[in-house]
Amino acid sequence: MAGVTAPLATASAAPAPGPTATATAVVVEQPVAGADGIKTIVAARSDTFGDIANTLDSLAVHIGSTRFSLWDLGVVIAVLAIVLSAAWGASRLASRLLARTRLDLTQRLLTEKMVSLVIWAIAILVGIDVLGIDLTALTVFSGAFGLAIGFGLQKTFGNLIAGIILLMDKSIKPGDVIAIADQSGQYTFGQIRRIGIRAVSLTTRDQKEYLIPNENLMINQVENWSYSSRNVRIQVHVVIPYACDIELAEQLMLQSARSVKRVLVAPPPTVWLDSFADNGVAFVIHCWITDPEEGVGNVRSDVLKTLWRLMRENGIKVPYPQRDLNLRESEGLRDLIEAVRARPAGDERT
């Protein structure tokens, strides 16, 4: 019996593998590899938090060979919150430090944008490194994301680059006064308040704020009133009667322009004879100001009000529109003339 038992024991100890006994190894991919390291650190520090982390990690969803747990989601949200908060705080700190430098407004804005781009790029790379995301596994996704950026966000990136270029060449900068046409086609002007990532903020005299894409200001023609000089010339049109003294009228026009506080002494105001109009002689008063953001219509109003007072004091009247009426000779007209002539003196009937 012993001779029979030994072979049986040997056979049971080393069974021959059958065709169905081969095990298939399943490799589970972990999209957020850093979550396991953070879970290990948490479990080493505290058993309670370690149990919570293990419980959250056990609540997982399998998509193919990829496993994504509730713990992974919590780690991603926490890391994103910390990284974004740190990047935002660093950007604000850099902005405050640059405000204390001697850079002008344009150079400071350009430096702030460049520093912000570097800070956010570093924040994204640090977040990816902390989460342990394998970028090679996201090759297809990154390609699709890059294609979406190329088609859907090309205007956004175009406006970003356009804003940086505008700040670099200083053709458009905060504080400049530029002229634009609104949606109704009415020509107006406004002052640039800020140059953002996407658009330029332009505020008009009636406190309407226009958001103009940076790309439009770079590729379209822009009328900048303060690009190389802040001096702006204003034209005031005046018509005086033919019978008045032209030299005296010119002196009164110059006096009215000089009396306005915002009108510059140099260049001095000038008066040009523009044309001979239907009801009088047309003049143009040219005067210069250096603060167009304060408005130009109010300067014209002050000049005209002062001129009105000076003309009345010197006996110069504002001409009224004159029209000549020509009547063709006809039989009915002759009868009317004869009837008027034959009317007795003192008869007021028509």
Automatic annotation (TrEMBL):
<feature type="domain" description="Mechanosensitive ion channel MscS">
    <location>
        <begin position="156"/>
        <end position="226"/>
    </location>
</feature>
<dbReference type="Pfam" id="PF21088">
    <property type="entry name" value="MS_channel_1st"/>
</dbReference>
<comment type="similarity">
    <text>Belongs to the MscS (TC 1.A.23) family.</text>
</comment>
<keyword id="KW-0472">Membrane</keyword>
<feature type="domain" description="Mechanosensitive ion channel MscS C-terminal">
    <location>
        <begin position="236"/>
        <end position="317"/>
    </location>
</feature>
<protein>
    <submittedName>
        <fullName>Mechanosensitive ion channel family protein</fullName>
    </submittedName>
</protein>
<feature type="transmembrane region" description="Helical">
    <location>
        <begin position="114"/>
        <end position="133"/>
    </location>
</feature>
<dbReference type="InterPro" id="IPR011014">
    <property type="entry name" value="MscS_channel_TM-2"/>
</dbReference>
<dbReference type="InterPro" id="IPR052702">
    <property type="entry name" value="MscS-like_channel"/>
</dbReference>
<dbReference type="InterPro" id="IPR006685">
    <property type="entry name" value="MscS_channel_2nd"/>
</dbReference>
<keyword id="KW-1003">Cell membrane</keyword>
<feature type="domain" description="Mechanosensitive ion channel transmembrane helices 2/3">
    <location>
        <begin position="113"/>
        <end position="154"/>
    </location>
</feature>
<dbReference type="InterPro" id="IPR049142">
    <property type="entry name" value="MS_channel_1st"/>
</dbReference>
<dbReference type="InterPro" id="IPR011066">
    <property type="entry name" value="MscS_channel_C_sf"/>
</dbReference>
<feature type="transmembrane region" description="Helical">
    <location>
        <begin position="73"/>
        <end position="94"/>
    </location>
</feature>
<keyword id="KW-0812">Transmembrane</keyword>
<dbReference type="InterPro" id="IPR023408">
    <property type="entry name" value="MscS_beta-dom_sf"/>
</dbReference>
<dbReference type="Pfam" id="PF21082">
    <property type="entry name" value="MS_channel_3rd"/>
</dbReference>
<dbReference type="InterPro" id="IPR010920">
    <property type="entry name" value="LSM_dom_sf"/>
</dbReference>
<dbReference type="InterPro" id="IPR049278">
    <property type="entry name" value="MS_channel_C"/>
</dbReference>
<keyword id="KW-1133">Transmembrane helix</keyword>
<dbReference type="Pfam" id="PF00924">
    <property type="entry name" value="MS_channel_2nd"/>
</dbReference>
